[in-house]
Specification:
Helix content: over 70%
Shape: globular
Radius of gyration: 18 Å
Number of helices: 9
Structural class: mainly alpha
Length: 184
Amino acid sequence: MDDKQIVALYWDRSETAISETEKKYGRYCRSIACNILYSELDAEECVNDTYHKAWETMPPKQPELLSAYLGKITRNLAINRLAYLHAEKRSPGMEVILAEAEAFIPDPTGNDASDEIHLRDAINSFVASLSQEARIVFIRRYWYMSSVKDIARDYSMTESKVKVMLMRTRNRFREHLERDGISI
């Protein structure tokens, strides 16, 4: 079943929407949640919450790219769940990723909507300027929160190559933001 048909099921309030979503995107959503939570049980709960959130938000939302829509919901729910589960402590893998990201992500406090749009456009133009290989590695690390080891394995690279590529990409990203007048 294609995405438009699945979205139509949500709009028709058909319970089949959930089972079709699970068939097509269950593994994808679990992968995102597991990369963040490092727990199959917590990931499964997060994926179920994703389906519930999709049910609540469609309608009025009518996503054109259902995978991205579900991925974003799953990622946000998993990050929130991780924060809840580790209010005082973070998982070691997540701690490393957050430390890396702090070096190139601007502080969102005090930003208005126009600042957020400017930042979004700067991020999109930067990601579009990357080579396919660098883009995949960057997105896998900072969006899907995959470990360096998993990225290296999945793309037949050494861990060292992935680390160097990420370091160079972070540095280029910081420079790109600064050229666009966005302070870090």
